[in-house]
Amino acid sequence: MSSVTLKKVSKRFTNAETDAVDQVDLEINNKEFLVILGPSGSGKSSLLRLIAGLEETTGGEVYFGNELVNDVSPRERNISMVFQNFALFPNMSVYDNIAFPIRASGQDSENLDDEVKRIASMLQIESLLDRKPGELSGGEQQRVSLGRAIIKKPKIFLMDEPLSNLDASLRAELRAEIKKLHKELGITFIYVTHDQTEAMSMADRIALIKDGKLLQVDKPEVIYNTPNHSWIGSFLGMPAMNLANSSDLGDSISAKKGASVIGIRPENITVSSEKSKLTGSVISIEYLGDSQILNVKVGKSVMKVKVPNDSKYSVGADVNLDFSDDSLRFFSDDGKYVK
Ligand code: ADP
Fold it and tell me: How far apart are CA 44 and CA 20, in angstroms?
């Protein structure tokens, strides 16, 4: 069983005044692709390193299956890890880099050659086996790191921002490859990123972390559509969810009891030619290629509205904004979701 259970797991670094990881409770299912998502400094890497055993917890328990592993060394946890900086051996060929973990553990056998070639073919780097890392592109180097991690046949695969050093088109390509790899290997993947596109496109579930605290764990569409905190609404989405004070929006919207902040996503607002729920004036327009974003001043709030790329609006124009009541989300003063 390669499930992972965290019970009130905390980490406070020496001399730090707050916990980098703060009482995290999380169950990661066997064979799941779980993405830990959060801004820089939120504690994602620390959490992953606690799971790997590279850091010691200062509180709480880590279980692999039913086994408490707090005192089990990283080597004995049956995991593989891939990092942002590829960390390959520069003087070894691609072949030798991939074969290294097996040779180093003394499990070298006659199957090794087949195994290296099988993995190289899975990662589409068969033709590069004789090269040195310095003769490879960033994307190719990261494929080699993946190969070196896979050959150990880990039960759990941990990845820490593995695509951050790659350019956009390579990132998109490797996102799809990693997702495919997860299916083929049939093992648990735990993947750390600050990139919402990576999280949304790859995760079975996303664990959202901020200031060391776990805010929400759920399927990407659930987190996107029903964030349990206004901060998550404003973190996810391009552009993010509009958050307005209910008093700014006037009487057209009946806010729920206890809700002082109203959230609505830019793609859920339409511009209407008829009198509608809100009126405002366009203060600026961002052209995004596939769409345009209108910044519309409504009361004291500025709402972002996503409109088709061929729309013709001009700065200064008054517009009527419409939306379905179902797309409104309500939050209390302290950001909590109000049902
Ligand atoms: P993220 O991966 O989300 O960027 P980290 O887990 O790297 O966040 O860091 C979380 C917090 O812990 C940050 O405030 C960081 O400065 C601190 N931190 C991380 N590693 C150490 C360390 N080895 N010693 C002291 N503080 C650390």
Answer: 9
Which ligand 1 atom minimizes the distance to the CA of 15? 25
On whether the CB atoms of residues 334 and 230 are closer than 8 A, the answer is: no
What is the longest distance spanned by two Cα atoms in the chain? 76
22-69 pLDDT, tens digit per residue, is 999 999 999 999 999 999 999 999 999 999 999 999 999 999 999 999
Rounded CA-CA distance 254/197 in Å is: 33
* Ligand 1 pocket mutation, candidates 46, 192, 211, criterion most atoms within 8 A of CB: 46
Residue-range definition of the domain harbouring residue 204: 4-230
Q: Is the CB of 56 under 6 A from ligand 1?
A: no
| pTM (2 d.p.) | 0.94
User: What is the atom index within ligand 1 of the atom nearest the CA of 38?
Assistant: 3
Shortest CA distance to 204 belongs to which of 225, 223, 185? 223
Q: Are residues 161 and 267 in the same domain?
A: no
Same-domain pairing of 139 and 277 = no
Q: State if residue 1 touches ligand 1 by the CB under 6 angstroms criterion.
A: no
**18 Cα to the center of ligand 1, angstroms:** 11
Tens of pLDDT, residues 292-318: 999 999 988 899 999 999 999 999 999
Closest atom, ligand 1, to C-alpha of 192: 2
Ranges of H-type helices in the chain: 44-52, 94-104, 112-122, 138-150, 168-185, 196-202, 220-225, 230-235
Give the residue whose CA is nearest to atom 11 of ligand 1: 20
For residues 258 and 223, membership in a common domain is answered with no
Which residue lies with its CA nearest to atom 17 of ligand 1? 20
Helix (H) or strand (E) holding 39: none
